[in-house]
Amino acid sequence: EMCIRDRYQRRVHGDLFQKMFGLTQIFGVPIDQLKVLGALLISLPLNYGFRYISNPTYRLLYSLSIGLLLQFVLYDIYTLVLFLFALVAYALVAFKRPKTGWFMCFVMMSGLFICHLRRMLTDYGSGTLYFTTSLMVIVPKCITFAWAYSDGDPNLDRKLTSEQAKAKLTTLPSIFSFYSYIFNFSSSIVSPVFGYHDFDDFIHLRGSYSNIPPCSKRVTYLIIQAVIYAVLGLVCRPIFPLSFVNTKEFAEWSIPRQLLYINIITFFIRTKFYTAWKFGQANITLAGLAYEGNDENGNPKWERMVTVRTRWELTTLMQERAVFWNMSVQTWLRQNVYLRIASAEQLRKSPALSGLASLITFLQSAMWHGTYPAYYFAFVQFALCVEVARVAHRNRALFGIFTHKYLYPLRLLVVQTIIAYPGIQFSLLSTSQVLDFLHTTRSVSYTHLTLPTIYSV
Question: Is 241 exposed, middle or buried (0-12, 13-18, 19+ CB in 10 A)?
């Protein structure tokens, strides 16, 4: 199947494909990643085009047509699969309103799981980008849309959070508007995920979107960050290869030295995510989608939709680690999974229920990422990590000594290690490689690693 797809790309894209293939040889970047980066760069001036279009219908058409074109350039005929996913989602919302939320979640996640499984079986262990990359943005949008429409049901008998009440839809948008939202090229390549209500306000230039200010400084800052992360990754990942953790030489290292290497390599692995997300953030900022009004000093704020906060690398609080990474997806999981299992009040009163809801949410996050067993193993560990941190936070008076400012470097090192250990397993993908890694690190029990989360109080 991979060979057929490559031949199809060569036939359709011709010289462009050959030139991109040449660039991959120069920079050592896989062609699929280079295509995504190219799409993000092309999107930058195209997103600025929204500043010159005020008619809602033209804005919808612009959003949809460019979005579909970019998806086709990236994923060829598989764009049809994305199109059909959106069609099924709209049909479910239109005909099953009272119970749309959980049913949509089941259907969309099942479809995504099947696509992930097919990709794993046909291209096992490969990090090649597949159409599921865009599907991982489309599915959360469909589920968010379904819950919003379900929350707008006049016969609703459940209490909504302030965010859910703000996002609810009382009428069903047209299928044209829905498709424009799903394939909006500002976000459909690498995220962020956001609600239809924000998109609708943006299209009709309502609220803070009625007067979107210039954003050159903000965009320049984001692009500089993206370039720095890209260079760091290109230069340093070959020096610190992930494959080294499965070598005999690594196995002979001392545990402190192994953990130091694990911390280093996971940072350089994260740079590719930072690169894509910062370029994605620059895109939605240029379009104006990220604008949320001005602060008390009259300065524009561009954080209505944020994918990652760079201070994720510096915080020692496990709860912040969970929130600041891939933030729009974390918001989607919290609002459409975690807080749908039980109300916020019930979760606060029952630590056991809160722990169960967290575990279910982390498992759905693993399912959203893919079908490799390593994902599920890693996310169960992440869930345990966060729960131990919550218990420690509730009893932080017992651990006052660990909060001293002079112990910050030690707390940071411990928390980084706790994240890095399952992070390596997440990145290895192959179950056999994960098992080899656990054996190589002398089968360090993760229970012993999670105990130091008391430092995150």
Answer: exposed
Q: For residue 219, which of 273, 277, 281, 274 has the smallest C-alpha distance?
A: 281
Distance CA 339, CA 342 (A): 6
> What is the CB neighbour count within 10 angstroms for residue 310?
11
Contact 290, 222 (CB under 8 A): no
**Contact by Cβ (8 Å): 323, 301:** no
Q: How much of the chain is helix, strand and coil, in % rounded to 5? A: 75, 0, 25
CA distance 5 to 77: 9
Omega before residue 140 within 30° of 0, cis: no
pLDDT number for residue 1: 47
Amino acid 286: pLDDT: 94
**Structural Rg of the chain based on CA atoms:** 22
Q: In the chain, what percentage of residues exceed pLDDT 70? A: 86
Reported confidence tier of residue 21, pLDDT bands at 50, 70, 90 = very low
- Cα–Cα distance for residue pair 447/445, rounded to 1 Å: 5
Q: For residue 399, what pLDDT is reported?
A: 59
> What length is written for the chain?
457
State how far the Cα of 198 lies from the Cα of 181, in Å rounded to an integer. 10
Which phi and psi (to 5°) does residue 294 adopt?
-110, 155
Structure tokens at 294: 């001005």
Q: Which tens digit of pLDDT belongs to each residue from 24-41? A: 555 556 677 788 888 899
Distance separating the N- and C-terminal Cα atoms of the chain: 50
Backbone angles phi, psi at 206, to 5 degrees: -95, 160
Quick: pLDDT tens for 227-285: 999 999 989 988 999 999 999 999 888 888 888 899 999 999 999 899 999 999 999 99
